Amino acid sequence: MKITIIGAGYVGLVQSVCLADFGFSVTCIEKDLNKLRELKFGRIPFYEPGLEDLFRKNLKSNRLNFTNEYSSNISQSDVIFICVGTPPKKNGESNLNFVDQVTKEISKKIKGYTVIVSKSTVPVGTSRRIEKILKRVSSTKTFDVVSNPEFLREGSALEDFTKPDKIIIGCRTTKAEKILKKIYKPLNRPYVVTSNETAEIIKYANNSFLATKITFVNEIADLCENIGAEIETVAKAMGLDGRIGSKFLHPGPGYGGSCFPKDVKSLIYQGNKNSTDLKIIKAVDRANELRIKYLFQRVKKITKNKFNNIQIGLLGISFKPNTDDVRQSPGIKLAKDLSKTKAKIKIYDPKGMENAKKELPRSIEFCSDEYEVAKNSNLLVIVTEWNQFKNLDLLKVKKIMKKPVILDLRNIYSKQITKNGFQYYSVGNN
Ligand code: UGA
């Protein structure tokens, strides 16, 4: 079976590497020539644990190839995965220009029966839209369009790809269903076979529910803080209820990244367009935005709104650990707000600093490790829960800080730290 994957972004590259590793012959089409050159040299354009090694292994074996050429690849493909970006417009709607463009290219080049799989997160109705474009240009050719949303997380992409909780196949024929099942056979995981439209909405419902869970626990954390209770214990007890489950109940600065904020807004847009007022999702979106906005207020409260001659250090800037992605990171918003004050701002992140530099003002100093950030700081804010921040040499940190004050937005430490002489603030604890 010959597989073509269009787009070497997060989803496309992981899909390409993993399917090549399953033994398929995979060609990945990437139009960005700089990215393409790097890929051909054996370098991947973002940080993802374990991915580069697996990528190089499959590149060497010649099962994995990269090109910007559509012609021969599309005509010889049995299955084509569309993995291009669907960036949000200002009104929350997903921009489908890239999906349209690649579908037009595909429609001109396909020859025999081909399965076209939509892997990008796309609004309901996108499969129909793809089918329409394909039929318009190539009415005589045979094809099936499948919706097969992806659920992998950045930072654990390989693990998530190889051990998904479910594989969603939204399709209209058993022929297409069988082909998809053949591709995913090595995974040996449960399938949900349904219509294209249902498959499309599953992805948004999934992401929006997780965003809701996080927002809910964040709200309870705020209440805990104000009434003297401890969110960690509340979340633990809730998580022990099998109907709730313990995952995605960690309070923090608000959800970020390239998926939850965008997908929640897109679902709201789809609801509005289809006469459905999604009240819960709207509240989640608003609550999360306010939470990120008010991070600065929290810092202001600790510094008593005095920023003259003080230094604030941020530990972490990526939206979560094990990634260099800073898109919609709560830390970026906080750093931007802090940079408008008179305080000196220092940041260290194990992987996210290059991307952060592109977003943040030059007045911010990027450091080579956590201790350089702590040195002379009046306040240390833990923004991202990287493992290496979990076992700081606290004696050393206390010694080199100007004032030993920590704001822990991920609750990786506890009140115990006050015994080491720190003034400690966390999320959802009094
Ligand atoms: C998310 C979904 O988890 C994936 O299933 C999905 O495939 C992906 O979006 C996508 O649509 O492509 P991702 O954005 O990589 O994955 O990261 P998550 O681990 O879900 O974290 C998202 C945000 O929620 C982060 O800002 C994280 O810090 C925050 N979060 C997560 C919490 O604040 N608390 C939690 O308990 C969990």
Describe this structure in words.
The mean pLDDT is 96. Helix 5 runs parallel beside helix 6 (126-137). This protein has 2 domains: 2-194, Rossmann fold, CATH 3.40.50; 197-430, 3-Layer(aba) Sandwich (Rossmann fold), CATH 3.40.50.720. The chain has helices at 10-21, 33-40, 51-60, 71-76, 97-109, 126-137, 157-162, 174-183, 196-227, 231-240, 260-273, 279-293, 295-302, 330-339, 353-359, 370-374, 394-400, and strands spanning 2-6, 25-29, 64-67, 79-82, 114-118, 143-147, 167-170, 191-194, 311-315, 344-348, 365-366, 379-382, 405-408, 423-425. By secondary structure, it is α/β, with parallel strands linked by helices. Bound molecules: uridine-5'-diphosphate-glucuronic acid. Uridine-5'-diphosphate-glucuronic acid (UGA) binds at residues 121, 150-154, 207, 210, 214, 248-250, 252, 255-257, 259-260, 319-320.
Strand order of the largest sheet: 3-2-1-4-5-6
Helix percent reads: 40-55%
Text of the CATH class of the largest domain = Alpha Beta
CATH architecture of the largest domain: 3-Layer(aba) Sandwich
Radius of gyration based on Cα positions: 24 Å
> Are there runs of 5+ residues with pLDDT below 50, and where?
none
Provide the residue-averaged pLDDT: 96
In CATH, the topology of the largest domain is named: Rossmann fold
Bound chemical compounds: uridine-5'-diphosphate-glucuronic acid
Q: What is the H level of CATH, i.e. the homologous superfamily of the largest domain?
A: NAD(P)-binding Rossmann-like Domain
SS-based class: alpha/beta
Largest sheet: 6 strands, parallel
In total, how many domains does the architecture comprise? Answer: 2
Straight-line distance between termini: 59 Å
Strand content: 5-15%
Shape: globular
